[in-house]
Design a protein that fits this description.
Layout: E1 9-12, H1 18-28, E2 32-37, H2 62-68, E3 72-75, H3 81-92, E4 96-99, H4 105-108, H5 113-119, E5 124-129, H6 144-150, H7 153-156, H8 171-194, E6 198-203, H9 204-209, H10 215-222, E7 239-244, E8 247-252, H11 257-263, H12 272-276, H13 282-294, H14 298-307, E9 313-314, H15 318-323, H16 325-329, H17 347-352, H18 359-367
Parallel strand pairs: 1-2, 1-4, 2-3, 4-5, 5-6
Antiparallel strand pairs: 7-8, 8-9
Amino acid sequence: MEEALSGLRVLDISQSISGPYCTKLLANWGADVIKVEPPRRGDTARHSPPFAADQPDPEKSLLFRYLNANKKSITLNLESKRGLSIFKRLAAGADVVVENLRPGALAELGLGYKVLEKLNPALVLTSISYFGQSGRYRHYRGSDLVAQALGGLMHLSGLPDREPLKAPGQQAEYLSGLTAALATLTAIYFRDETGQGQWVDISAVEAMASILEGAVLSYSYNEATRQRSGARHPTLYPSAILPCEDGYIHVDSGGEIDTLSRFINEPRLLDPRFQENPRQHADEIEALLLPHLARRKAEELFHSAQEWRLPFAPVLTIAQLLDDPQFRERSFFATIEADAPRLGEHNEEVLIGQMGYTHRDLVRLREMGVI
């Protein structure tokens, strides 16, 4: 079946999350992604829990499976001359190379952009790092936590009278991977128009700094520094996460506190002070809301509030998320047959079928530690 990126060949020499998430998206959109892994150990994500059936195994990492389904895997030692030569041949016929090594490491291997550009002027090289390929911090060590801190998101996360908090999971890794995929597509569009490839430079810290809503703009215009607001919306109110009978519900007046007052039958919300500056009286407003919410379930509140055109929403658990009818009706969570590749599973398909090596060549390359 023809897909959006059918015919696009991508070489993925990245590991862990950011680069593989970028190429996962490209693969899902139809690109032919060849994952180039170090012999024997493979991608570091292969060794990351959780594992299927709770059995530690490089072929059973659920993280690796999630990030690398629909890809092909070959093994190649890029620190060897033969491995380098094979990769250059692959790059000469590729559209995209994605990597997330430390800045400068690709050039040290002899695969910097100037080298790849000479091999293939139309090639797009996408590099993902924590600080980018330039700037005074480019050689500093980074992590998802570092990116959330230096990217400004952590300053806005948490309660106003408590320490900053990180967002759960590896948000900087996934966001930089998403940003890289979109930037890569833009570079491909430009390449298709001009025939010219380019080097796409993605910084995880900058990716985080791009999602701070109006915080940067507010400071730029009037030097207003947004503070942590916990489960309350930083500017609009009432808009907060509050407990109800069986969980938590996002309560939102949609800018119409009088409608909220009628919905929960609480006339005290019509106090003129709340109408003029509700954010300033958040504690008092929530004290009025909580007894009403405590008697009602999240699902019932959600649907009945929406009938009043109030944008309430339950805070779903993961189990509830997977069973939610809206997601099911739109087939968002789909069961797929494609699995992530075993380490080196496609060595023969790529090296023999596409590059002309023989089985004897592959035996020799394995003996030499090249694949």
